């Protein structure tokens, strides 16, 4: 006999809070889960505040079994993605559910039906909410907590996806590098010195007094540098400004560099402190009133970095700027007292970057998978 799973759409703030707080049930006994800040999730899912949802339709669903909340999911259409890639892809995101195949099946079928009715012919996910945000289900590396702005999930999520006919579309890696295993690679050093000797490249830390102008520079480089990568979706000015409003509060400007060549910005890299070292202590997901003080007291004690975004304009790829960025950020990080870093996420087929990270001692310690199927 098929289990009766009731699906309800989100129609009120109460429903939205139930959607946001549901993961606390899934991860109650998981010591590696880092609770999201509730205020951040509210902001992300607010269609009036988040420009992504102003332009892209989405539906949010809750699953109930015998009156008990047992799962959640979002169905998302990313118009920018479909216009850029000339396809009809729909996405699912924010999927969380108990270990019950009927619950997963009902949630995913509801999403598939919603997307199919709106002209989509395949579904990918998870994207929370887009490929410019958190993506994929963790498939290995469960024994370590996620770094800042990276997802986490139980192993059974992958079992459920495969049982329901979803197949791997793309894997992305997270690399771990600590100072004890850091390799100051002579090849990198020689390459960096040769490039700097031949080309007048300057590396400038982010200037917080000119932040808005510099973030626009970063957006333009990003949209050029990543345009040929799998899953790329151009960031609009409005979307980037939405991200930047929070970014300016958390960035270490010494670890965010912009490269200039003959006065032209040609590349950037951004390493953020691993704030999850603090947030994992906020088990209630609230910053105010008391956790704010804990945050301030511990902010300078963070010892990890996440290398989260990197880009070089395509016409300057031949300069070998990647080696310069890596050597410079490693040296800066060590000088500032950081002891380890995660480089994420890296596409599985980006051989150039994967090999470069291996050369400096990085180890791929987590894999995240994006699943898909035709509709």
Series of H and E elements: EHHHHEEHEHEEEEHEHEHHEEHHEHEHE
Mean pLDDT rating: 92
Q: What is the CATH architecture term of the largest domain?
A: 3-Layer(aba) Sandwich
| CATH level 3 topology of the largest domain | Aminopeptidase
Biggest sheet: strands, sense, closure? 13 strands, mixed
How does this structure look, described?
With 375 residues, the protein is an alpha+beta fold. The chain folds into 2 domains: 169 residues, Aminopeptidase; 190 residues, Aminopeptidase. It is 36% helix and 28% strand. The protein contains 14 helices and 15 strands. Strands 1, 2, 3, 4, 5, 8, 9, 10, 11, 12, 13, 14 and 15 form a 13-stranded mixed β-sheet that branches. It has a two-stranded antiparallel sheet with strand order 6-7. Strand 2 and strand 3 form a beta hairpin. The longest helix is centred in the first third of the chain and has 16 residues. The protein is globular, with a radius of gyration of 21 Å. The two termini are 26 Å apart. The mean pLDDT is 92.
């Amino acid at each position: 006999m098929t289990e009766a799973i009731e699906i309800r759409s989100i129609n009120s703030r109460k429903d939205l809070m139930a959607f946001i707080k549901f993961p606390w049930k899934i991860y109650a006994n998981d010591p590696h889960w880092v609770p999201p800040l509730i205020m951040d999730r509210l902001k992300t899912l607010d269609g009036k505040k988040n420009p992504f949802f102003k332009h892209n339709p989405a539906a949010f669903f809750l699953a109930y079994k015998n009156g008990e909340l047992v799962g959640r999911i979002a169905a998302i259409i990313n118009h920018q993605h479909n216009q850029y890639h000339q396809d009809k892809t729909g996405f699912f995101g924010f999927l969380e559910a108990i270990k019950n195949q009927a619950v997963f099946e009902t949630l995913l079928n509801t999403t598939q039906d919603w997307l199919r009715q709106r002209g989509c012919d395949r579904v990918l996910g998870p994207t929370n909410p887009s490929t410019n945000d958190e993506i994929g289900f963790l498939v290995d590396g469960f024994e370590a907590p996620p770094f800042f702005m990276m997802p986490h999930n139980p192993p059974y999520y992958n079992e459920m996806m495969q049982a329901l006919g979803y197949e791997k579309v793309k894997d992305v890696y997270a690399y771990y590098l600590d100072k004890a295993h850091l390799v100051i690679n002579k090849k990198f050093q020689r390459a960096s010195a040769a490039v700097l000797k031949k080309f007048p490249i300057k590396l400038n830390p982010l200037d917080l007094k000119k932040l808005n102008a510099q973030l626009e520079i970063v957006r333009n480089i990003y949209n050029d540098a990543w345009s040929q990568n799998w899953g790329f979706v151009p960031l609009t000015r409005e979307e980037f400004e939405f991200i930047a409003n929070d970014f300016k509060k958390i960035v270490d400007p010494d670890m965010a560099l912009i490269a200039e060549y003959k006065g032209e910005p040609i590349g950037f890299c951004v390493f953020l402190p691993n704030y999850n070292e603090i947030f994992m202590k906020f088990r209630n997901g609230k910053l105010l009133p008391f956790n704010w003080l804990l945050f301030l007291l511990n902010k300078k004690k963070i010892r990890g970095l996440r290398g989260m975004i990197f880009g070089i304009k395509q016409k300057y790829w031949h300069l070998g700027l990647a080696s310069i960025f890596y050597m410079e950020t490693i040296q800066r990080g060590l000088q500032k007292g950081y002891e380890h870093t995660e480089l994420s996420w890296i596409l599985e087929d980006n051989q150039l970057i994967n090999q470069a990270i291996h050369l400096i001692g990085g180890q791929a310690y987590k894999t995240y998978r994006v699943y898909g199927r035709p509709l």
